Amino acid sequence: MSRTLRLGVNIDHVATVRNARGGTNPDPLRAAMLAIEAGADGITAHLREDRRHITDRDIEKLMAGIDRPLNFEMAATDEMLAIALRHKPHAACLVPEKRTEVTTEGGLDAIGNAGSLARPIGELGAAGIRVSLFIDPEPAQLDAAKALGAPVVELHTGAYCDAETPETRAHELERIVRAAAHAEAIGLECHAGHGLSYATVGPVAAIPTIVELNIGHFLIGEAIFVGLTNAIARMRAAMNAARR
Ligand SMILES: CC(=O)[C@@H](O)[C@H](O)COP(=O)(O)O
Ligand SMILES: NCC(=O)COP(=O)(O)O
């Protein structure tokens, strides 16, 4: 059965530009409000441990200033857990973090880290926060997420988006298709994201059991040329066309 497909706009890289000079411009909250006006169903922000883009103050402002769900991306650390429990965003997506990576390189290892993930998943869920695990499209990782009690998974689409040959891209897409079917079979809500662009969004948006895409870096880059409203409208149209 095909379901409505939500668009979460990730505004991390508005903060990247702001932080290049310090100060307050451009303001991620303003971008989030504009994104909502342009049709975003929610806002995603990743408070990295090193605060390279989004800051604690950004999260406070987003919590107070937007009237759509905030998807708070966080490492499963005690510090981030305390911040999430203080703000109680609609959703928290647990992601792996490496201090030296340029962006999130792979999914969370829900199998290998089951011991350390159980407590944050339990405490976030008990606080009424919808927990998702950002994982590679591997059935065994989905099974581990389910066993840990996470209601949602977000499939890492980076390998699909970065594929250098049509064959590799087709293979990576097939992994996502299979993982999304597996999520449905075991009762997990399925999201996807990372690196999606106009060129890559269609086949992922067409997967009927995926209900949310989180897209940031490409949209913020595209906004330089056409404005955020136009960039989001075109992404929405591409998603809708693929879903029909
Ligand atoms: C978890 C994920 O894929 C992204 O949402 C994340 O925000 C990437 O981190 P950067 O935004 O720092 O590239
Ligand atoms: N979780 C993925 C996300 O929020 C956006 O990733 P990207 O589009 O900035 O690569």
From TrEMBL:
Record keywords: Cytoplasm, Pyridoxine biosynthesis, Transferase
Classification lineage: Bacteria, Pseudomonadati, Pseudomonadota, Alphaproteobacteria, Rhodospirillales
NCBIfam families, A to Z: pdxJ, PRK05265.1-2, PRK05265.1-3, PRK05265.1-5
Protein name as annotated: Pyridoxine 5'-phosphate synthase
A cellular component annotation (GO) from this entry: cytosol
Record pathway: Cofactor biosynthesis; pyridoxine 5'-phosphate biosynthesis; pyridoxine 5'-phosphate from D-erythrose 4-phosphate: step 5/5
GO MF annotation, one: pyridoxine 5'-phosphate synthase activity
EC number annotated for this UniProt entry: 2.6.99.2
Record site feature (Transition state stabilizer), residues: E154
Assembly mode: Homooctamer; tetramer of dimers.
